[in-house]
Structures are given as C-alpha cells and as structure tokens.
Write a structure and sequence with these properties.
alpha/beta; five-stranded mixed sheet; 5 helices
Length: 153
C-alpha cells in the first residue's frame, strides 16, 4: 500500500468532498473513502443527524459500501481516508475489516471547542488486534480546519 503523497492527497480530497456534502445537508463535516489498488471502492459521509440513525457515521457507511462493492468483508488490502479521527465504534469496524492503512486529517485535539477529549483513541485498539495497521494523522489537516471554521455545537 505504498503510494506517493499526491495519491494520498487525492484520496483525502475525495473524503473531504464527502464531508462538504454532509455539511451542506446539515450534518457534521465528516467524510471517508476506502481505497483498494488506487481505486475508491467505498465512500461515505455522516448522516447521523439528518438520517436519524446513530450508527450512520462516515466510516461505517464507507465500509458498508466497500464490502458491498467488493462482495467481501475482508478489506485487508484496503486503505481508509477519514476526514476526522474515527470514534471507537468506527475504529472497531475498520479493524474488524482488517484495513491495513488509516489516514486521518483531523484529530479530536484539533477541535477542542467542538469535541470533548477522549482517553481512548484509535491507537488504543491496536494492541488487541492480530495485525499492525499503519495510522497516519494530519493529512490535509488545514483544509479540514477551514471546513470547521463556522461549525458550532
């Protein structure tokens, strides 16, 4: 899953496009894409507020889409690009699918005025996994901070 920075930027831009759509529809600007062999195989945006389903997080929706499109729940050859740090529900789903590379734009610490701090992070789950995923933070961080500039609780 070795890619140059421009490929990572391209996929994060696609996740950001999902986040922008979520924001335009009245949800938080959270978006996500799942990538395999340099192709997007799943995409999602949060619809938790507008859709009425507490589990409709961007990551869950993107994982469902990828599993459907690949006709498999084994996503071990995939990477996931998340505009925001996945919550523990989403992190568990990411790891249950076997995703090997996780790219995150914003961490919870980047938005202390909006998101409460948590003692458990996505990395907190790694010791209990049967594999060692790569987790990269800060990809397109500044672009996402701009998207949150006018968001309030």
């Amino acid at each position: 899953m070795h890619q140059d920075i421009s490929a990572h930027q391209k996929f994060m831009e696609m996740a950001i496009a999902e986040a922008k759509q979520a924001k335009a529809q009245g949800d938080w600007p959270f978006g996500c894409v799942v990538v395999k062999d340099n192709l997007v195989v799943g995409a999602g945006r949060v619809t938790e507020k507008t859709g009425g389903d507490i589990t409709d997080h961007a990551e869950i929706r993107a994982l469902r889409d990828a599993c459907k499109n690949l006709k498999s729940n084994d996503l071990s050859e995939c990477a996931i690009y998340c505009t925001n740090e996945p919550c523990l529900m989403c992190a568990s789903a990411i790891f249950q699918a076997g995703i090997s590379h996780v790219y995150i734009a914003l961490s919870r610490d980047d938005l202390p005025h909006l998101l409460r701090p948590r003692s458990l992070r996505i990395e907190s789950l790694v010791p209990d996994l049967g594999y060692s995923p790569t987790i990269v933070r800060g990809l397109a961080r500044e672009q996402m901070l701009v998207l949150f500039a006018d968001v309030s609780k």
